[in-house]
Specification:
Layout: H1 3-19, H2 25-39, H3 42-46, E1 49-54, E2 63-73, E3 76-80, E4 87-94, E5 102-105, E6 116-120, E7 124-132, E8 135-139, H4 142-151, H5 157-163, E9 171-185, H6 188-191, E10 203-207, E11 219-226, E12 229-230, E13 235-243, E14 246-253, E15 259-263, E16 269-279, E17 291-301
Parallel strand pairs: 9-17
Antiparallel strand pairs: 1-2, 2-3, 2-6, 4-5, 4-7, 7-9, 8-9, 10-11, 11-12, 11-15, 13-14, 13-16, 16-17
Helix pairs in contact: 1-2
Length: about 300
């Protein structure tokens, strides 16, 4: 296990103690949070998934809802702090059918953890949206870049890099993340009138059905969009979590309509993740970097 995995595992363990009411869990949590921040370097974080994890996917009406922004791997991660300079949008959207969005901006103070809090005062289906500002990073070895690219479905990326004549000892990348989370305030019955929607993000995963609807879904279809168009033959990874120690992972390829379909089970939480990695249009100057990647994630829960 590498040091990043150690930090993430320790963080999750401390968080579990707090949820179970152990008195010493909060002190452990504080110490482990600091340790995880040291162990998880910016480069290692860039290679991991980024997702929204609410304190509840099905909060009661008039309930305060914590919104964690999480970086990790295999649906196990560390909560990140609120950094306004790295946020382009952070919103809580009401998504009832046949109505315009009611959009509430989520704000906070620098360093807040969890990064956001919202007051879920209205029943129904909601979307939490987070879009980061572009961030630039440098891989200090071709092996690290190649491992990342292959994991995300781009087996030929390093060959393309070398064919362009770029150096392999310092590979630069500019990346941006687009995360969504689907929430049912008041439970599955009241959420049946809403659904996920395409919001026009640079890269976006859209659930084709309401995960909280009754009767409960047996399969979920998710469509991947890139620049407002469905993207075919793209890799999508689906993580299924029953508890922090029981996570399954499966990879899919989108069909000609940008769709994948997978079985969903009651009581499970889902993280759907996809990345588009492309050579930069320009020659890899400081502004554009050599590579550009856009990341999409979608989280939701299937009710028991």
């Amino acid at each position: 296990m590498n040091i990043s995995a150690v930090g993430l595992t320790a963080f999750a363990t401390a968080k579990t103690f707090i949820r179970r009411g152990h008195s010493f869990g909060r002190n452990v949590f504080i110490k482990v949070t600091l340790m995880a921040g040291l162990l998880l370097s910016p480069l290692s974080l860039a290679a991991h998934e980024f997702w929204i994890e609410p304190s509840s996917f099905q909060p009661n009406p008039n309930e305060s809802l914590n919104v964690d922004l999480v970086i990790g791997t295999d649906f196990l991660g560390a909560s990140t702090i609120y950094v306004p300079d790295r946020i382009e949008e952070f919103s809580f959207l009401s998504a009832a059918l046949e109505k315009k969005f009611e959009r509430l901006e989520i704000t906070g103070r620098y360093g807040d953890r969890p990064a956001g809090k919202v007051f879920a005062d209205n029943d129904g289906f909601h979307i939490i949206l987070h879009q980061t500002a572009p961030i630039r990073l440098t891989y200090d070895s071709a092996e690290k870049f190649d491992k990342f690219a292959r994991e995300k479905g781009f087996d030929d990326a390093l060959n393309q890099h070398q064919a362009r004549g770029f150096p392999i000892n310092k590979i630069t990348e500019k990346y941006q993340r687009f995360a969504k989370s689907l929430i049912a305030v008041g439970g599955p019955i009241s959420a049946g009138i809403g659904n996920d929607r395409h919001l026009g993000l640079t890269i976006e995963l859209v659930a084709e059905a309401n995960p909280y609807q009754l009767p409960r879904l047996k399969r979920m279809q998710v469509r991947l969009f890139s620049d407002d168009k469905p993207l075919a033959n793209a890799q999508i990874t689906v993580f299924t979590r029953h508890n922090p120690r029981n996570v399954e992972k499966a990879k899919y390829r989108t069909d000609s309509k940008g769709l994948i379909s997978f079985v969903v089970l009651p009581g499970r939480e889902y993280l759907v993740d996809s990345v588009i990695l492309q050579l930069a249009d320009k020659s890899g100057d400081e502004a554009s970097a050599m590579w550009v990647s856009n990341w999409a994630s979608l989280t939701f829960q299937i009710p028991n």
